[in-house]
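Researcher: I'm preparing a figure for a lab meeting and need a structural model of a single chain. I don't have an experimental structure, so a prediction will have to do for now. The sequence is pasted below. Please return the structure as C-alpha cells so I can convert it later.
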Amino acid sequence: MDGYAVKATIAAVKAIIAGVKALVAAIAAGGWVAVVVIIVICLIALLLGSVFGIFFSGDDPGTGITMQTVVQEINADYDSRLQAQKNAVTYDELEMSGSRAVWKDVLAVYAVKINTDPNNPQEVATMDDGKKQLLTDIFWEMNAISSRTESRTETVITETDDGHGNIVQTETTETKIVLFITVSHKTVDKMAAQYGFTQEQKDYLAELLQDENNSLWASVLYGINYSDDQIVTVALSQVGNVGGDPYWSWYGFGSRVEWCACFVSWCANECGYIDTGIIPKYAGCVNGVQWFKDRGQWIDGSAEPVPGMIIFFDWDSPDGSSGPQDGLSDHTGIVEKVENGIVYTVEGNSGDSCRINQYPVGYYEILGYGVPQY
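Model: Understood. Here is the structure written out cell by cell.
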C-alpha cells in the first residue's frame, strides 16, 4: 500500500472511531436521530475525500466553477484548435479521421491521478482554477490533433453533344489539395501506464468506469437528471467528434460502420434510456423507425417536433450510396430545438463527424420522428 493509501486508511479509521464514540454517546442519550446523522456525515466525508468524490463535482462549491463549465471550456478550446487546422491552409477537400477520448474516461483518469497523488493528494469533489488546469493538461495528454496536406491529380471525363447527335468525351486533369485532419486519443490503460499507476489505482479506475455509474457520470458531465432534454445535452457535448469510434465500438462493432444510429443509441445509453426501454438500441435506421412505429410513438416528417425527439431521414440522393427516396430511413439524429420554423439537430456521421444541422419544418427528406416517452 503506498503512502497516500496508508494516510487515507488512517483517516478513515479515525473518522469511524470518532463516529463510534459519538454513536455511543448518542445512544446513551437516547438520540437515535443524532446517530443516523452522525453516520451519514461520516460516510459522506469519506466519500467526498475519495476518488468517488468526482461524482459530486457537478455542484458549484461557491467558486463559480463547476465541472460542466470546465468541460464546456475545454470542448470550446478543442473546437477552436480543430478550426485552426482548417484555417491554416488552403484546400479543396477535407478528410477527417479518428476520435477523441470519451469524457468520462478523461475524468476517471483525472480523479485517480489527482486524488491518489502520493506527493500532493487533492479532493476531486470541487473545482477551482488549479484543478481546472490539471484537468486541461490531462485532456490534452489524452488527445491530439494533427494534419497534413496532399496533392491529388484526377482525370475528369466530360461529355458534350457535338451538335450532330454524337456524344464527345473530353479528358482533363485536375489537381486538388486534400487536407487530412486526424484526431487521436490515448486509452485509459495507456494513461495508467504513462502515469505509472499502481494496481490499486488501476482498480479505482475500473470501479469508476463501471457501466452502473453511467447515470452518475451523466449528472457530473451534463448537470441534469433524467428529462427529455438530457439526451440533447449529451449529444451537444459530442459535437466535433470525428470517425465515430466511441459509438460504433461501444455498440460492439470491431471496425467502422455507418454510425449515425450508433451515436443516437450511445447518447440514449448515457442517459439510461436504453435500460428503461425509452429509446431502442439500434444500429440500423430502419430498425429504429420500426421500433417507434410498433409502439405507436411515430409522427411523420410534416409535423413540428420538440427537443429530444429522434429524427429519421430518407435521403433523395440518386448519385449517392443511399439512393433515391424509397420510404426507408437512411440517416438518424436527435432534435435539439425548433425555432422560427427551423429544426435544429445533432447528428453523428454527418460528414463523418458529430454536427449540428438545420432543416425547415416539413423538409421533404425528413421521413418522420420517433417520440420517446420520457
